[in-house]
Every structure is written in C-alpha cells, then in structure tokens.
Amino acid sequence: MGQKYQIMVGIDGRSISEKLVGVGHYVFNLIQYYTQNGIRCIVFTKRTSDLLSNLKNKYLKIIQIEPSANLKTQEQNHDWEQNKLAPILKKIKLDIYHATDSAGIPKDIQIPTIVTIHDLIPYLIPVIQDEAESKYYKMRIETAILVAKKIISISNSTKNDIEKILKIPPSDIRVIYQGISKFKKSPKYCWDSLKQKFNIQKRFLIYVGGIARRKNIDKLIIALSLLKPALDFQLVVVGQKHKPLNDELNEIARKNGVHKEIVFTGYLEDKDKNTLLQNAEMLIYLSSYEGFGLPILEGFQAEVPVITSNVSSMPEIAGKAAYLINSRDSESIAKAVRKLSTDEKLKHLLVKKGKIRVQDFSWEKTAQETLSLYQELIKE
Fold it and tell me: Is the fold of 8-179+362-379 the same as that of 188-360?
C-alpha cells in the first residue's frame, strides 16, 4: 500500500495472547497491517505478549495497564476501562480509539471511538452464570455502543442482531468482514509426525473451533456412531480444551461406542492445524450461533468440503460453497457426511466453490476498510 496514513490510533489489545484465538486474530492482524503501513498505533493491554512485542516496529507503542486485583473478570474489565484506561487516554493525543472486543470504551472519552461487536452471545446464549458478572458484561457492551461514533459488525447476521436486540439504527453500523491468513501447505513429513502424535489411523473428519455447548460437538459424536459400520471415520477435534465439557463429550463418545475414534488435540499452532485440515476428508462446523465462523474459510483454504449450520452467520460466510444442514440433529449430520462421502461430483464442486469464496476475505481488505472508516470519523 503506497499511501502512509498520518494518524494516531489507540487500540484495545487485551485479547492478544501467546495463543491466538478468536478476537485475538482480528486485533493482531489489524495492528500488524497498520504498523507495516506507517500507521501509528498505541496498543493498550493488561499484559504484553511476545507476539505483540516481536512486531518491533517504530509505529507501534504498547502501554501496559495493570488491572485491579481481587475482582472477577467482567468487573475487573469494567474497572480497567473506566478507572485505569480513561485517565491515560485524556493525557495522550489520539485521533481515534478502537475498542476491538465488543466493549471497552470509557464513558467520558473525548475522542472519536469505534467498537467492533463480534457477536451478542451474552444476550442470546448466556454463558456467564454469575448474575453480577453478566450484568457487568452487558453494561460494558451497552456503554460502548452509546459512546461509539460507529459500530463495526463482522457480519450482516451480527448486524441484524445488534439492530434487533440493542435497538441500534442500521446507519450506525458498518459491516466489515474478518480476514483470513494465507494458507501454507505442509510437507508430507509434518503429516506423518502428527499422524503418529495423535494416533490417526484412518480417514478422519475434522472440527476446528472452541469447545462450547453451542458448537454441537455432542451431536457430531452421535452422528459418527450412526455412520458405522458402513463408513468408518475417526473424528479430530481441534481447539482449546475445556475440561468439564471435554469430560462430558468423552462420556457421550463412550456411551455411543466411538470413544476410541475421537482425538481431542487441544490448541494447535496454525502450521499443525493446517496440516490436519489438508489431510481431512471434510470439515464439519456445526455451531448454532457465531458472529462470523472463521473455520469455514479455513476449510475452503485447505480445499476440503465443508459441512456447516444453516443458521446464524454460517450461510452468509459460506456463500454457496458449503453443505448446509440442521446442526442440532445427528441424523442430518450423518446424512450429510454420507452424501459427501459417496457423491464425488458434489464434493469436488464444493471444494471448487470454496476456493473461489475464500478469495473474498483477507486481513488486508479488513484493515483497509477499517482505516477508511477511521478517516471518515476523524474528518467529521
């Protein structure tokens, strides 16, 4: 990109950790693109990560703000934003501040602000059981949308939720899709190593993503049992382990006689994840609710057929390049796997469409569209 933007952007970098997942990918890739293109960034975080520090760029400054101790997560976040970050922002000359993780704007901020809302899980699928914590989380989101000059939504699906649930006018929301990092094919020795490490002995289906109830991994495990004996697959589940749920899923697998067929890898770096993806029979991503659904694009990049949910943002992100199903019904999942296992023509057509669809997404495009929005607001 030839033009150097002479602006100073403040960015909430709290979601960046050594293991990049979810929102962390989004924030890291924005910062990386900006600083490589001469945009000055001040990143505010609770703790610095080597990943961020290793960018080593003259356009990047990291300010670490220690959180208050002895507070629960959402109360601590609220305190950090309103009592720790706020006075620092008053002393620094920024052109714009970007709250990158659905919340996080001091209520008395004096500069233009943007908040990116990734999803409305706190409202639609409450995952925080603690009533006070849930209240703080929603208060943080609602403060951000009241103060922000513009809201970025990462899909039209999430935009519709924001309009409906938070009563925000469509004109206040800009849809800017997430990007995806370039896919690097792995050599055969990497696959041989992983095959041995995870004891993968036959053809396998792959799931990539978090371990959460809305992901319907339990339905996928039951579907795996319904496929036997005609189709004999292993199931490889790639994602950070969540002990209580992993225990539940292992018990479901035992009850359905497929516990020896399932591999939980835990978190994997992109290189290993991509190696598994490119050797899988198909990617199955069955979430009931997502703000975006990045694993769908990862499947497209790896050139494997993708089966995904027919609800929330999944049809939007997949376009016409995935096989859409009712993800809460194990028989529907099994039927889809049978179809793609026997219909080579359909399988190749989906892979071809996926290769085309994924070209619509890149971090460069995400960053450029976000920069354009910054400039619009700065000029107002």
Answer: yes
pLDDT tens by residue, the chain, 380 residues = 444 547 999 999 999 987 878 899 999 999 999 999 999 999 999 988 888 888 888 999 999 999 999 999 999 999 999 999 999 999 999 999 999 999 999 999 999 999 999 999 999 987 767 888 899 999 999 999 999 999 999 999 999 999 999 999 999 999 999 999 988 888 888 999 999 999 999 999 999 999 999 999 999 999 999 999 999 999 999 998 888 999 999 999 999 999 999 999 999 999 999 999 999 999 999 999 999 999 999 999 999 999 999 999 999 999 999 999 999 999 999 999 999 999 999 999 999 999 999 999 999 999 999 999 999 999 87
**Residue (of 112, 148, 141, 105) closest to 124 by Cα position:** 141
Domain boundaries, the chain: 8-179+362-379, 188-360
CATH dotted code for 8-179+362-379? 3.40.50.2000
Query: What's the CATH code, domain 188-360?
Result: 3.40.50.2000
**Burial state string for 230-254 with b = 16 or more CB within 10 A and e = fewer than 16:** ebebbbbbbbeeeeebbeebeebbe
Paired with 171 in beta bridges are none
Round to whole Å and give the CA distance between 375 and 212: 38
